[in-house]
Structures are given as C-alpha cells and as structure tokens.
Amino acid sequence: MLKKLVWELFATISGTNFKKEYAEAVNLKSQAFLKNLLFHAYNNVPYYHDVLRKAGAVKDGKACLANFEKIPILTKEIIRRRTDELKSRDYKKRKWFYNTSGGSTGEPVKLIQDRLSTKWSMATNCYYYNDIIGIDELFAKKILLWGARRDIFGGGIELNKVIDNALTNTVFLDCLSMTETDMRYFVRIINSYRPEIIRGYASSLFELCKFVKRKKLSIHSPKVVVSSAETLYGIMRKKLESVFGTKVYDFYGSREVHGIAGECKYGLLHMFMFNNYVEVLDRYNQRVKEGENGRIIVTTLHNFSMPLVRYEIGDIAVLGPQKCKCGCPLPTLKKVTGRRIDYFVREDGRIIYGGYFIELFWGKDWVKAFKLIQEDYKRLRILVVLRDGIAYENQKREIEEKMKLVMGKDCKLKWEVVDEISKTKTGKYLHVESLLQE
Questions:
Q1: 163 CB contacts (<8 Å, ≥6 apart)?
Q2: 371, CA 20 to 30 Å: which among 3, 61, 282, 418?
Q3: What is the C-alpha separation between 243 and 206, in angstroms, rounded?
Q4: What share of the chain is helix, strand, coil (3-state, %, to 5)?
C-alpha cells in the first residue's frame, strides 16, 4: 500500500499519472477521440490541412467521419520526406520528445511524440492487463526480457525510469546479449525473483526456453507470459507454454503508435480503439471481411504533436469478429501473421507466409540459428549457424525440396554457413526477410 501511494505521488510530480486516461479508456470514446484528432490536425498540421480538406474529412469547421476513408494512406516514405510538415505547429508547447520506429524493415522513421501519448500508452497497457487478462500489472512483480536500451533507461530521464521500475516492481533483463552465460543468469534471476508476469520479445523468450530445455534446467512458472514486439509463431507459443508451464498471451504494438491489440483467454486480439483507430485493408484499400488477411492501418488518437492519420505500419493481420465471448467490447483480430517483410513474394504475385519456411528449421538439432533472405523472385539466401559435429546433408535436401514446392522448382537456393546471425539494434531476430518489400 505504501509503495502505491509513493508511486501515485511520484507519477503526479513527473507528469506520468495516467488514471484520468485509464478512466476514459474504459468508456471507449474512440469516435470522439478521432474527431478531436482530425480537427486538431486540420488546424495545426500543415501536411494534413490540405489532405483533410481535399478528402472532405473536415468540413465547415467539423470533422466528417463519413469521408474518413478518402484520406490517403500515410507511408514511411512520406514521413521521411515531409517530416517537418507533419509536426503540429504547437508541438514545442507540449512535453515532446523524439522516438523512432524499430528499423527492422529498413531505415528507421523518426517521429515526435509527447507526454499525453505516453500516458495513453500506459493507460492502454493497464486496460489490457486489468480488463482483459485480469491482473493488476502496474504493481505485480514482473520481469521484462527486452532489448531496446532506450526503453530501459530512456533518453535523458534515466533516474525517473529507475525510480519508476523500483516502485512498479519491474526488473529488466537485456536480451541484446543472450550468450549461454547470460541465459543462465536470466534463469537465476527469474527463479529468485519469482515474478507474476514475464514479458519479452517472442524470439528472446523462445531462445531462453530452448536453452532451459536443452540444459534440463528448472524455471519459475509465472501467472502469465506475454510475448510482444515480434510475430509469435505457433511453434514458439507451444515451447513457451511447455517450459514456463503457463498460458502465453500475445500483445501487439509498435514504437510508432504504442499498443494496438492484446490477446484474451480465447485467443483473439482485441484492438485498443481508444488508443489507436485501426483498419484492416486489402491491396485496394478496401476493408477486409472477417477471416481475411489485410494490411494494418493505424491512426494515432492522442499524439497531437505529430499525428499519424491512416499510417501503414507494415504489418499483416487476419480480421476477427466484432464480438468475443470473453465479454470485452473491443473488436478483434484473429491473429497478426507478420510484417510485410515476413512474407516471400513470387513473380506471379502470390504471397508465401514466412512461417512456412521458419518451421522447416525449428526443431533441427544441427541448426543453432538461421535466417532466410529473399533477394529476388527466384533467389533465396539461407544463412545458418551449425552446431558442431552434426551431419545435416539429408535434412538440408529435404528443406530445399519443401522450399521449392512453394517458390517454384527453378528457385535458386544458396546456403551460407556463418558464425552468427546478427540481431537488429533493438535485439530482435529477423528469421525471414524479403528484400523485395519495404
């Protein structure tokens, strides 16, 4: 109780108390938030003044949501070219800071965000755990297996972050380094701290679980494990649930827009429409139907310093039903199937899901690490780190045959044995990458 009171005082002084935002999130006023955001963008953001006027999204001094879908899609390239025009004229009056995309799809996009958007991110996180999973996450003992040091220590606010972590019972384990020595240390910390929640990158959690299984170690079982920041493939979920002995939930968000959707106990991901207005569109920018794959398009509702309206984030998902039997009123995604670069593309336009290739390698005892790169429609490069002294030629031929079944018999496959597979700057593994997409 004392720690909660101290945190409330600290959060109020530091301007990060999100109680008001959480109360508004529970009321689900997404339409009102969207109208406010559009009206602000029209009046204060040079890029959007013309864009929203031409689309008819703001008319006679009012936001017109009937014309919202006429607003052109915002791409990363537009942001790079027109950054200054996308800044709100009043951003310097706000508690603003720079942030960037993770950069795993190429050159990172530099953005301006502000304290209000951060508070809404925290409120969204609180809503997910409290209202969907049923855990008081803020003060629960938790371990974060994370790789972005700017998230761990922040830019210029290191002391505040350290204090906040202490008050909210948060322990960070830096997955930028995951040697066997590091992972033994992680297991010791998890077993001694005994967290209720373990959250981290999908690939980092997966690597830790493979290590635990391989070394026949025991590891503490938390109430929940939450995977985020990367695609959680089925084979990864099974391994995590087997090793940790608890349910694994998938949380979907990004550095550019924060929380987008979170998984409930029935396996659907509820879209946080009070934080981001989310659309799932086909290649013609039409809304997909339930069960169909589409591109994720996001409108940030609370970043008034640099609004992103109909921003194509670069992810693909399957639209779920409007209602779920868990009782949460938020609409759903059935699953996030990956980023656009997680797909390989054939010359005839057919898209091949990256998970197909990934599952060809997982479980192979001769593979320590791997990465598949599509360099052209008919040329794939296969990087692999081998375990010492294990023969693999027969399985290698089997993998090639299965790859050519979907990519074509004339597809050229080039194997390269390497010493290591590099992570991204934020500590993520890219198992599959297509150079034919952004």
A1: 10
A2: 282
A3: 10
A4: 35, 25, 35
DSSP category for residue 74: B
What does the alpha-carbon distance between residue 275 and residue 308 come to, in Å, rounded to a whole number? Answer: 12
The pLDDT of residue 117 is: 94
To 5 degrees, how large is the angle CA 330–CA 334–CA 335?
115
Q: Are 200 and 228 in contact (CB under 8 A)?
A: yes
Q: Give the relative orientation of helices 202-214 and 234-244 as an angle to the nearest 10 degrees.
A: 50
Residue 366 has what pLDDT? 85
Identify the CA nearest to 275 among candidates 128, 67, 397. Answer: 128
- How far apart (Å, rounded) are the C-alpha atoms in residues 268 and 349? 29
- Which sign does the torsion angle of CA 364, 367, 372, 378 carry? negative
And the tokens for 231? Answer: 């695609």
> C-alpha angle 59/61/63, rounded to 5°?
60
pLDDT digits (tens, 9 = 90+) for 374-409: 999 999 999 998 877 666 777 888 899 989 988 888
Q: Which two tokens stand for residue 369?
A: 């690490």
Closest CA to 148 of 113, 104, 211: 104
Provide the residue type at 59 as one letter. Answer: K
**pLDDT tens profile 17-32:** 888 888 888 787 778 8
Amino acid letter, residue 47:
Y
First to last CA, the chain: 49
Strands of the sheet containing 379-386, edge to edge, are 412-417, 379-386, 367-376, 432-434
Question: How many Cα atoms are found within 13 Å in the side-chain-facing hemisphere of 96?
Answer: 18
- Single-letter amino acid, residue 8: E
Residue 304 and residue 36: Cα distance in Å, rounded?
10
Task: Tell me the residue type at 362.
Answer: W
Does residue 6 contact residue 12 with C-beta atoms inside 8 Å? no
Q: CB neighbours (10 Å) of residue 373?
A: 18
Side chain identity at 378, as an amino acid letter?
A: K
Q: Give me the domains of the chain, ranges plus CATH numbers.
A: 1-340 (3.40.50.12780), 346-434 (3.30.300.30)
* pLDDT at residue 123 greater than cutoff 90: yes
Out of 203-212, 343-352, 417-426, 428-437, give the one with best mean pLDDT.
203-212
The model's pTM is: 0.81
| Residue 386 zone, left/alpha/beta (φ > 0; ψ -120 to 50; rest) | beta
Q: Would you state the pLDDT for residue 245?
A: 96
Query: Hunting for tokens 């301007």 — which residue is that?
Result: 15
